[in-house]
Amino acid sequence: MKLLYEGKAKQLFEVENEQEIYVHYKNSATAFNGVKKEEFEKKGVLNNTISALIFEHLEKNGVRTHFIRKVNDTDQICQKVTIIPLEVITRNLVAGSMAKKYGLEEGKKLSQPVFELSYKNDELGDPLINDDHAIALDIVTQEELAEIKQQTHRINTVLKDLFLQAGLVLVDFKIEFGKTHTGDIILADEISPDTCRLWEVNTGEKLDKDRFRRDLGSVMEAYEEVLGRLEHAKS
Ligand code: UDP
């Protein structure tokens, strides 16, 4: 298969059907814009499986995603879209860059979810932008941004509930949207412990990529725990 694109966590290959793309989840973990790197033997399998399970759950709950089907342990077929270069972040509790930037304690409750946009550009380190920047720079139209916000709100509601059933608090997460050939905006990329902060509901234990970022150890054990709990919650 022809490699179309290689990112930090995934490879995208061309398939015969022009409307589809073959996604391979890699074992590499990166943080701090690629400065910290490590290979984890089971990461591709875990993130492919978790992402597929979450996309299927979202579809069942009325959210359109690019996911079509899992091919094997590490790979899935998705709808081909043009990625909108925005990292769409939702925060339910204060953590990570928000805690740092505003001098807040991690875990502080927010009276409503916070919606943030970053301009997806590795060279610039994905700078935070606001709605006006996104529209004035022609990244999205006002209508498209409204659609993205509405879908993101729905995704947050569905995912918060799914993770809570699995005994996990969805602290924050990053999603990306893509445009189909007919111009529809649908959820794309991945949703996994790489892109979400997930805290065990009783102990507050971190079960996500912060274990890698902060050298907390047992990174894949945490991802496995998330998968096991999601499978149990859905059965
Ligand atoms: N996130 C991501 N990719 C990025 C930046 C952030 O998936 O390039 C996720 C991150 O895992 C967390 C949320 O978005 O769940 C908010 O991240 P934050 O802005 O706090 O940045 P970080 O502290 O991860 O640098």
Kindly summarize this structure in a few lines.
By secondary structure, the protein is an alpha+beta fold. It is 32% helix and 32% strand.
Explain this structure.
The structure is a single chain. With 235 residues, the protein is an alpha+beta fold. 32% of the residues lie in helices and 32% in strands. The chain contains six helices and 14 strands. The protein has helices spanning 43-60, 96-102, 131-136, 142-165, 210-213, 219-234, and strands at 3-6, 10-14, 20-25, 28-31, 36-39, 67-70, 75-79, 82-83, 86-93, 109-119, 128-129, 168-179, 185-188, 196-200. Strands 8, 9, 10, 11, 12, 13 and 14 form a seven-stranded antiparallel β-sheet that branches. The chain has a five-stranded antiparallel β-sheet with strand order 1-2-3-7-6. The protein has a two-stranded antiparallel ribbon with strand order 4-5. Strand 2 (10-14) and strand 3 (20-25) form a beta hairpin. The longest helix is centred in the middle third of the chain and has 24 residues, at 142-165. The protein is globular, with a radius of gyration of 17 Å. The structure holds uridine-5'-diphosphate (UDP). Uridine-5'-diphosphate (UDP) is lined by residues 87, 89, 95-98, 126, 172-174, 195-197, 209. Residues 87, 89, 95-98, 126, 172-174, 195-197, 209 line the site of uridine-5'-diphosphate (UDP).
